[in-house]
């Protein structure tokens, strides 16, 4: 098997006394779309931030294509954070130019086409846009990079169901067979049709890593149904 695009070994992250990730070990291969699923506070965003080098592990390690997160990995990872970091005065056009300046793998024509398709005006500022529209723009720019690994932290939470389908198709059609997409979400039933594999996190521990096909074959259930059973309150 080829080198994993992402590998965690005994990964732990504490915030003071609070354990957010507890001895997490798994690896992800290239060419897969993977759902990172778990209840509130299970450690999904923490894992995404560690993969981006925004946090450092308390112990254990996380590697992207064999490297510790840093300058080399930023060049191959496209990250959609859980919260926007763009300024309100920026227009959609500004954002495209910003990405083009920052990332040599950014395909500005692809991004512009997607914005047109979504009916987003290039001269509108983020300040005047709805939450869902802002989310769409962010996802468009993140998916318009030719990255090896896309880390999407809650990409469709504020987007209406019709736009969700467009966005999922955008994800499917914009990644190539050597890339991997890791998506954290609570909207499992919307997203499971595009997933190859899922990771279930519970209280910072990895409790399941399986392909969607295996889940259907072994449990006779959808991922959504299995999630509701495993995490029933
Ligand atoms: N900056 C922080 N300081 C202290 N504790 C934190 C901090 N960030 C996260 N935590 C705690 O770490 C745990 C994991 O949080 P994290 O945000 O990774 O979970 P999550 O699975 O992304 O949750 P959600 O689905 O609600 O977004 C939670 O118990 C949370 O309260």
TrEMBL record:
Residues 6-228 form the ABC transporter domain. The keyword rRNA-binding does not apply. One of its GO terms (molecular function) is ATP binding. The keyword Signal does not apply. Transmembrane segments: none annotated. Keywords: ATP-binding, Nucleotide-binding, Transport. It comes from the Bacteria. This is ABC transporter ATP-binding protein.
